[in-house]
Amino acid sequence: MMQNSNINPEEENRMIDAAYQNLLNGYLSSNHRKKVEIIDRAFKFARDAHQGIRRRSGEPYIMHPIAVATIVSQEIGLGSTSISASLLHDVVEDTDYTVEDIKAQFGEKIARIVDGLTKISGGIFGDKASVQAENFRKLLLTMSEDVRVILIKMADRLHNMRTLSSMPPNKQYKIAGETLYIYAPLAQRLGLYAIKTELEDLSFKYNHPQEYERISSLIEASEEQRNELFARFSAPIRERLDNMGLDYTFTVRVKSCYSIWKKMQMKHIPFEEVYDLYAARIVFQCDKEYDEKRLCWSIYDQITEVYTKHPDRVRDWLTTPKVNKYQALHVTVMGPDGNWVEVQIRSHRMDDIAERGFAAHWKYKLGEGEEEKELAKWLQTITDILKEPEPNAIDFLDTIKLNLFSSEIIVFTPKGEPMTMPKGASVLDLAFALHTDLGTHCIAGKVNHELVPSSYKLNSGDQVEIITSNTQYPQPEWMQVVVTAKGKARLRQALRHQRRLIIDKGEQRFMDFLAKHNIEFSNEILSQAISRQFVGSKDELYFMIGNDEIQLNEAMLNKKGQGARFNWWRRNPFKGKEAPKETTQDLSQAIDTKMVYRLETRDGVSNYRIADCCHPIPGDDTVGFLTEDNKVVVHKMDCPMLARLKASYGSRLLETQWEEYSDRFQASIHIIGIDQKGILQSIVNIISTNMSINMKKMSVTADQGVFNCDLDVLVSDATVVTNLCREIKKVKGVTNATRTN
Fold it and tell me: How far apart are alpha carbons 256 and 311 in whole angstroms?
C-alpha cells in the first residue's frame, strides 16, 4: 500500500519541478540533438496520468519515472526517444491509458518501447516457474526488437534498488536476489559496468547488511593509507606521462564492497588479507581513433620501465575486444609497498564505452558499425536458445546465465574461421556450437593437429577439428563437460529423449507389477505411490522404477485384510534426521508481513529443517524458505541455492531468528599448515580435550610438506566455531583454519 505524505502540495510540486529540471539540464548538456518539446509533452502526460498516486516511500509516483529517465539520460547516455519512453514506462501498466493512446500522442517508436516495457513489467520472475521462464523469454525477445527496452528496464531496476529500503524484508530478499541473479550479469554483458557494480553492491547491502556495513567501514578507515600509497605509486609514472605531453587523468578505483566480500568468501581470508583493494586507471584524450592503440602501448612501456610487471597478468583487450566491445590494456605491476597493483590504460572513448556500454557507441560513430553487428550477433545467440527453451524455468535461467557471465576466447575451425566461445569451453561445446549433430555424435577432437578428448578445455588461438562417430550418443555425464548455453540446451534435449524411453519402461514395469498382483490401476494408487516415495510427479516415479532406483517386490504389498494393496517403503527425505515438527501456524499469509519466524527446538523436535546445501548454525545470518507443505527450511544468507530461491520464490522467504535450541549442529573446518610431527595430535587435543567438542569426521592429507585437514564437528553455535578456529591457529605449524560450509 502507498503511504501518506506529510509534504504539502506546493513543496511536492517544487520537488517534482526540480527533479524534472535536473533531467532536462543533463540532456541539454549532452551531444544529442535537442528535442525538448517531445520530452516536455511526455513529462506532462505522465504527471497527469500518475496524479494522486504515491510510491510505498510516500513520494509522488511521478518521481520514479523522472528518476528512471535521468538514469537513462545521464548514466547510460540515451537520447530523447528513450527519455520520453522512460517517463511514460509505467503509464500503460498503472493507469487507464493504452499503448494506442501512447502511439497517437507520441508516435510508433516510443509506443513500441513502452509496449515492450509493459510486457516485462513486474520483474523477470513471477510466482510460478512457468511464468518465470516466460517473462524472462519476453525480456530477451524484446532486446532483438529494440535494445533500448532492456536499457530502460535496467535503469528502472537500478532506481528500484536505490529505493528498496521502503519495502518489507521478504520483498527486499526477492528483489535483491533476482537483481544479483539476472540483472547484474546482464548489465555486465551489455557493457554497463558502473550500473552492474552498483546493482551488485545494493543487492549485497540488503542480503548481508551487517557485512556490507563492516566492509564499508573498513574501506573508509583505510582510505588515508591507500591515498598515500597511490600518491607514492603514481608519482614516477605521472612524471613520464607529463614528459610525453599527454592530456590524461590518473585515478585510483577502490573495488566494490561486493567484489571484496566475494574474494574473502572464495579465498576464506579476512579483509586485511585482500591486497588488491584498488586498481589504478589512466584515461587519456585522443582525437584520432587510429592512434589509441599506439598510445596505450606507449603508456604501458613507461609503466613497465618504472615497475616490474606480473608475467601472467597482462590483458590485451585492444587487439581482441570483449563481446560487449570493452577495450583497454591492463597490466599488473609490483608497487612500492610490495603488493601487486593493476593499471588499466584506455582512451576517453574506450572509458566511456566501458562505463556506459553499447549506448555510448552511438556517440562516436555514424551508421551501422562493428558494434551494432556484434550486438546483433549476441542477440541472435539468445534467439537461438529461445527457439527450444528449457521446460524447467530454473534450468532455463541457468542456461541463459552461462552466456551472461562468460568471458570470451577466440578459436578457429580447420578452415580458419574464428569462433567466439566462453572461457572454459570444451571441444564438445564447439561441436554443439557448429551443429547439433556434431555435438551429439562427437567422440574427440584435434586441437592444433593433436588428438584430444571431447572434454578438452580450449584456449584462445586453438585450431579445432571435431571427430564424430555414428555409434556415439549423448551421455548424462556430458553435462559436467558442456558449459555453453547452446550446448547445454541441445544436450538436455537429447537426454530428455533418452529419459522418455526409461520412463516408458518404468511405467510398463509398474503396470505389469499391478497386474501380477491383481491390483487395479487407479489415480488413487498412483497418488499414493508418488506421495510415499517423495517424488514430484508420475514421470519421476516411473523414471526411478525404470532406472532401477525403486525395486518393485513382494515386500511392498500389505496383504492383511481384504485383498492386496500397496505398503510402499517410505524413503526418508531427511536423510536420517528427525522430520520437522508440524508447523501449527499457517505461514502462507504471514510471509507478506514483517513477521520474524522464531527457530526453536523443544522436547527434541524442531519447527524447522536445516538445509543440506549450506548447514547453517545458530549465529549465522539466515533466512527461512516456506515449502509447499508448510515447513520452514533454514538457509545461510550466502548459500548458492538460496540465491536461486530468492530470485524465483522470493514471496516464500521468511526473516528468521534463532530462539531455544538444544541441538548440536554440524560445521566444517579446513585447516592448512606445515606438515610436522605432532601437529595432528595438538589439533585433536584442542578439539576433544580443551574445548570438549565432538568430532564427526576428519580427513587428513600431507603433500610435499603441506598439511591439509578437513574436519566436521558438532557445535552449539557459530561462536564456538570461531573460537575453535582461533585456538587451532595457535598450534605451531598451522597457517590457517577457516569454516568452509
Answer: 26
